[in-house]
Request: fold
Amino acid sequence: MKRANQDPAGGVLSFVGGRRFVTLGLWLGAFLLVAGCGGDNGNGPTPPTQTAEELTESGWEKFEQGNLTGARDDFDAAIDQEAAYGPAYVGQGWSRTGLAASPSAHRAAVASFDGAIERNETGAEVRAGRAAAHLGADGQNLSSAIADAQAARQAAPQFIFEHRESFTVEDLHLIEAFALAGQGNWTGALAAADEAVDSGIEQGDSGTWVVDGTTYTTFESAVLAFLQKVSVDLAG
Reply:
């Protein structure tokens, strides 16, 4: 019989790097700036400075196109332009989370969402994004990931992220499930995952510890295999 890796980190990384940041749509080409008629001698008209709101709108456009680096740069510029502009911190947090390849990078994304909340950005998308960022922070923020996922669902029971519609309430259930698995709460993890997709697994019935035709020898390994399967299946 095949055994699954019982370390939840593999599942967490698979989820963080998978469904939430699947590129939407087609690349729309380079972002064009109108430079005026003065050539490159420095004497042409100076382009007007974009406002923090305009830079944030540009950032979301790039985010929706899958250009996370360009999006992050626009959100950073918006914050440089107006440090009190809360919506830019929301975008910065989401783009940082999408680009994050290390726990420290995920913690930087958490800091962005914290900055948004400090500036009175309280929508479900803030708590949802921070939940995802907490999940990637090397197991140090699992309780916070659970709390934020639950808060986002409470604020928006049918949550769909406006700027990446593949990120839905199902992802919030999976964030909670992976975080609970990371804490060793396999019963809670299965209950959370079952809210997204019914597993058919029952803790007291070893005959149900089957995922994709493979029977697992422990309840925990079956739950982890199911979490990994769901994170992959929903990534399409």
